[in-house]
């Protein structure tokens, strides 16, 4: 199984080098890189999420969280590179059979992504890119009813294979009941498939014995597992570019992941609506 | 335009995707479902089946026969709580919004502590309270008496410095841990670091690492290092009884490795496993032990109680004195 996943991973990454050679330009690579538009992307969003940690409970916890993120985006028709951080927080509750329990969650994430255009699939209106996304997400959870297991921390690092299709909809002058002003607009959809899912979580018994060992090693009972579980994510973005070259982006993002294992599986999904301001740096 | 609307239809698609990706919703009030879940959690994670010689399969047979589809929540709670009580462990509880099950290890031995007798017969009217400690001089200021009734997690350098400085010229201390049901383990090491002069291995610990009853990690040493400040080097008599439990028992176990600390009283209640916590499909919560504490010779039998070095019992026919304090004073003077 691991071998198969490794082969898929290599097949997904190898084409990146080839696509990067497809540019036909009289400019040098350095000149192209320097001329590529760069944006600082500040966004805020609202998550609707659910999670379940079988290590402590078979019940789903549902809730909403606020999310804030910042990223640096360099993109043109040939290449897109984005690096960013995000932070979210919220309360997730399980209410069943007269018992309500709440888990407070803080989520940190790091993203790095590179996408390359596939010329053969791209047209004047369409741009299709493939590439990879590396994401590390960490959840810090506190659920008091679980007593010695009340604190949970988990890290998920995933290497995704990505496909992104962008449609130029600048000619669109009406959307639902709204009349649109002339502007550069794009609608894009990105899908990410987790090729290598790694987890760093509590060990078998969930609670570590550091306390009774008089040992400060906070994460000593944690275990790293490579190729464990599954993850998918996607993003639907609607972007309007202003006359000053800045942009506004409305997004719907979906992210779902689960770990492997039997007793201690962790499952979480996020549906996020975001608004972002893109500040052009060039 | 149609393509845009089509794109928006992917939102419900992803909700259905994750439903397929995740396991089914297991929330349930079905009595047998909850019974099986709790039994399995204990079977795969509880740490003292072998020491206590508990046939957990036989327990399943015995208690599953009491489960029926139409039983009330209260009746189900009674069956599940009774099943956990078979573990004979006060670190084991079932918790609902209407009841909490428990074993009650302090009932296994006689009561050996009366705070009123200590106050009336031994402490002065102006005894001190420093953080979680109640303390005073005894025996013409030759002995310091320190009552520590619960590991509250509030033991700190300020209250320990004050107490040890106050009793620095005494012949010895009495640390009274009777009916101390435990609490924060950090307090254990904050206290013990004042009574050692070098790094000392107190005991060993191991944790469950797999579903078999004897799947454990390697034995890891529990160490205490001397506090870099005020310490006490004379004898300390540690008073214990059946009500001395959990962190109280950990402290008692540690004294076996410390020659200047002597246990006086009755066998402790045990509770040397670190309890975890979890939730059942019906929302109730539970806890039970997932570690074992071992002596320096890697023996786990002190889970059933740490035996005193000097066994003394209370005489309830004579309420003018505390026999256990009296014996401790005799050792120190």
UniProtKB/TrEMBL annotation, chain A:
This is Outer membrane protein beta-barrel domain-containing protein. Residues 1-20 form the signal peptide. It comes from the Bacteria. Keywords: Signal. It comes from Paralabilibaculum antarcticum.
Automatic annotation (TrEMBL), chain B:
SUPFAM superfamilies: ClpP/crotonase (SSF52096). Residues 110-313 form the Tail specific protease domain. InterPro entries: ClpP/crotonase-like_dom_sf, Tail-specific_protease, Tricorn_C1. PROSITE patterns: PROKAR_LIPOPROTEIN. SMART domains: TSPc. Gene3D superfamilies: 2-enoyl-CoA Hydratase, Chain A, domain 1 (3.90.226.10), 3.30.750.44. It holds the Pfam family Peptidase_S41. This is S41 family peptidase.
């Amino acid at each position: 199984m691991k071998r198969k996943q490794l082969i898929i991973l290599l097949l997904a990454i190898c084409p990146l080098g080839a696509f990067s050679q497809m540019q036909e330009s009289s400019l040098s690579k350095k000149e192209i890189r320097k001329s590529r538009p760069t944006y600082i992307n500040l966004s805020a969003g609202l998550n609707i999420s659910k999670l379940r940690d079988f290590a402590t409970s078979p019940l789903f916890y549902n809730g909403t969280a606020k999310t804030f993120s910042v990223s640096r985006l360099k993109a043109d028709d040939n290449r897109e590179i984005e690096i960013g951080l995000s932070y979210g927080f919220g309360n997730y509750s399980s209410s069943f059979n007269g018992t309500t329990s709440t888990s407070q969650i803080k989520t940190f994430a790091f993203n790095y992504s590179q996408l390359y255009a596939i010329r053969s699939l791209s047209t004047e209106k369409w741009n299709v890119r493939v590439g990879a996304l590396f994401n590390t997400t960490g959840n810090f959870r506190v659920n008091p009813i679980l007593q010695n297991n009340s604190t949970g921390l988990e890290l998920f690092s995933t290497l995704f294979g990505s496909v992104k299709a962008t449609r130029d909809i600048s000619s669109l002058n009406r959307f639902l009941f709204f009349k649109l002003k002339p502007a550069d607009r794009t609608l894009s959809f990105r899908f990410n498939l987790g090729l290598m899912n790694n987890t760093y979580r509590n060990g078998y018994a969930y609670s570590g014995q550091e306390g009774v060992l008089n040992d400060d090693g906070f994460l000593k009972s944690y275990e790293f597992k490579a190729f464990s579980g599954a993850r998918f994510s996607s993003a639907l973005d609607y972007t309007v570019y202003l006359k000053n070259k800045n942009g506004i982006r409305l997004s719907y993002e979906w992210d779902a992941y689960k770990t492997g294992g039997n007793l201690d599986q962790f499952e979480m999904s996020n549906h996020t609506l975001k608004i972002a301001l893109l500040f052009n740096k060039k | 335009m149609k393509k845009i609307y089509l794109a928006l239809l992917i939102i419900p698609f992803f909700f259905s995707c994750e439903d397929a990706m995740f396991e089914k919703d297991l929330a349930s009030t079905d009595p047998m479902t909850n019974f099986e879940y709790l039994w399995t959690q204990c079977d795969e994670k509880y740490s003292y089946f072998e020491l206590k010689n508990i046939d957990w399969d036989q327990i399943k047979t015995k208690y599953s026969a009491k489960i029926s589809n139409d039983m009330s929540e209260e009746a189900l709670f009674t069956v599940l709580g009774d099943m956990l009580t078979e573990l004979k462990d006060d670190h084991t509880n079932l918790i609902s919004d209407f009841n909490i099950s428990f074993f009650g290890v302090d009932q296994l031995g006689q009561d050996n502590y009366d705070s009123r007798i200590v106050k009336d017969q031994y402490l002065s009217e102006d005894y001190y309270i420093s953080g979680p400690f109640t303390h005073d001089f005894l025996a013409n200021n030759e002995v310091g008496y320190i009552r520590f009734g619960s590991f509250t997690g509030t033991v700190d350098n300020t209250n320990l410095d004050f107490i040890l400085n106050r009793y620095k010229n005494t012949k010895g201390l009495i640390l009274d841990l009777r009916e101390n049901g435990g609490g924060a383990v950090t307090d254990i090491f904050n206290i013990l670091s004042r009574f050692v002069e070098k790094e000392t291995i107190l005991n060993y610990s191991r944790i469950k690492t797999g579903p078999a009853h004897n799947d454990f990690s390697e034995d890891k040493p529990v160490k205490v290092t001397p506090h870099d400040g005020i310490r006490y080097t004379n004898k300390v008599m540690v008073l214990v009884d059946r009500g001395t439990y959990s962190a109280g028992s950990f402290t008692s176990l540690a004294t076996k490795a410390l020659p200047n600390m002597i246990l006086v009283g009755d066998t402790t209640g045990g509770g040397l496993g670190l309890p975890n916590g979890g939730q059942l499909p019906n929302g109730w919560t539970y806890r039970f032990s997932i570690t074992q504490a071992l002596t320096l010779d890697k023996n786990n039998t002190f889970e059933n109680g740490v035996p005193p070095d000097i066994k003394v019992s209370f005489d309830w026919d004579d309420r003018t004195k505390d026999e256990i304090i009296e014996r401790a004073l005799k050792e120190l003077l």
